[in-house]
What we know:
The complex is a heterodimer.
Chain A: H1 2-8, H2 13-43, H3 49-53, E1 57-60, E2 69-74, E3 77-83, H4 86-94, E4 115-119, E5 142-145, E6 152-154, E7 159-161, E8 173-175, E9 180-183
Antiparallel strand pairs in A: 1-9, 2-3, 3-4, 5-6, 6-7, 8-9
Chain B: H1 9-17, H2 20-30, E1 32-34, H3 43-62, H4 72-81, H5 86-113, H6 122-144, H7 149-160, H8 169-177, H9 184-215, E2 231-233, H10 234-259, H11 289-297, H12 301-316, H13 318-321, H14 333-354, H15 359-386, H16 398-401, H17 408-417
Antiparallel strand pairs in B: 1-2
Helix pairs in contact in B: 2-10, 3-5, 3-9, 3-10, 4-5, 5-6, 5-10, 6-7, 6-9, 11-12, 11-14, 11-15, 14-15
Bound molecules: protoporphyrin IX containing FE and FE2/S2 (inorganic) cluster.
Amino acid sequence: MADSASHAQPASTDGQTRRDFLLYATTAVGVVGTGLALWPFVHSMNPAADTLALSTTDVDFSAVQVGQAITVVWRGKPVFIRHRTPEEIAQARKDDSADLRDPQKDADRVKKPEWLVLIGVCTHLGCVPLGQKPSDPKGEFGGWFCPCHGSQYDTSGRIRKGPAPLNLEVPPYAFTSDTTIRIG
Amino acid sequence: MSAYKTNNKMVGWIEERLPIFSMLQHSAVEYPTPKNLNYWWNFGSLAGFMLVVMILTGVFLAMNYTPHTTMAFNSVERIMRDVNYGWLLRYLHMNGASMFFVLVYTHMFRGLYYGSYKAPRELLWWVGVVIFLAMMATAFMGYVLPWGQMSFWGATVITNLFSAFPVVGQYIVTWLWGGFSVDNPTLNRFFSLHYLLPFVIFALVFIHLWALHTVKSNNPLGIDVKSPQDTIPFHPYFTIKDLFGIGVFMMVYLAFVFYAPNFFGEPDNYIPANPMVTPPHIVPEWYFLPFYAILRAVPNKLGGVLMMFGAIVVLLFLPWLDTSKVRSGRFRPIFKQAFLLFIIDCVVLGYVGSQPPADTITLIGRIATAYYFFHFLILLPLLGKIEKPKPLPASISAPVLRGGGMAAGATAKPMEKA
Ligand code: HEM
Ligand code: FES
């Protein structure tokens, strides 16, 4: 290689452009090829098929009284299901017009107003907010309080105070009967 | 380099094929070391020693540790109770991590005070910062392995930092987890990387030393070596001094291991991980506290994450930020005080990071964070321009020899001190 290169030096520019082309083409193929070869390594770290397969959870909440809440597991995360009282629903609707960081109407966050279904993961850095048990602090807005850095959520699970940027997420779910839902 | 000579046939035979003896001779025996190094220069070799201890104890722990969510916690308890000397291996490793950070932080503050990041040592400094980052990643992932409550929630909060990045954030986090929350795939990969990274650090340490031996050590006066009289050979002078340092250090380290093994730990980490319940007060290990305080000081999620990484990245820009031509803080009257304030600021940040969030704590955290960046971004560039440094000695030998090379009798006393 080095030999022929020094030979070609004084020759026509024609040969040089052809050599340049070959060099660039080879480099490009090498870079793309290396990238393609890396992808399996990178993608092997994404959720595996069996992890994805565990992605629905069925819940029967017929025993949950008004004002009570239960926590179920979906995709390894807690899901909060709160049987809201009429006052909580009224408060949530009234707050539709409050100063919200992540504006959303309460009606858009529920399928049936008395059942609030939320992923129980603080949208700041992923702690589980308190507020499910009667003895838990619920924060200034009657919803949930995150112990990690003090985020506060209202009775619709909307962020009202603290560092979290977004409302508690509503997971995809559907009512399979009056008192059962399938999450996922 | 003086040519390597030997009478030993076997050594000669090897040397001709692999010049390892001359390399050792050159870099561990003859290596010309400034003769005025003080004890702050012990911390590099101490950190290297600690790295070896971590790898050794880690490899033996791994023989009994099981990286699975259902077994990890119990396998660590088994190491503590049933494995012969398992408690010793684990306590050496656990406290070793804290000691490692004590040593490396001291090593870094030494560099900050004596201007060791200035030309020609910029690359040496940068490799050091990369080692520091790799250490933080290693320690973070190691802390996840026992799979206690702090392990789990620490991992959750720290990996969630990446969700702050717009658009790609959530994909990055899912990828890091290998699922939809911190779970078994996360634990497995953390163990894999926790095993790997210390060896990467080991390699980086060699690059660090390669750069060091190219530009040679800085010294407390911060002036260049001018003649062979300014140096002494590494062996035996510094081999023995470093060994002495290791002896003193071991007394401190082992005092923790044997008398207060859980001093640096969190009791909550002896509760098995529960993904459904966050402990009321989660804190990272002490060595991350100042950065945690910076994270929490910013009311915006992405902003907090960027500031936290920025606090480390800013170290890389030091060679340009510090505009002073004088290396050593000893000759910089104002810098000296700024340096003291900076250390106090870091301690305040550490304290703030350890406290639950409350209004006054957050306010102190904000002021301390602002001061941290003020120190690097405004104070250092400005000081170099306005400060009038004290006169530098003509050479390393000059302050002890007074007029360079007087009669030996007159200088014997001060020489001893050097
Ligand atoms: C840079 C060097 C290293 C640092 C800073 C480090 C740090 C840590 C930390 C902080 C823990 C948690 C200790 C606890 O709370 O129980 C840990 C655990 C562990 N480390 Fe390391 N480590 C290092 C090197 C290694 C190496 C090289 C290996 C294996 C080859 C290893 C294997 C383990 C194992 C198996 C555990 C789990 C057992 C336990 O929790 O004690 N470590 N490490
Ligand atoms: S994780 Fe909830 S406030 Fe930070």
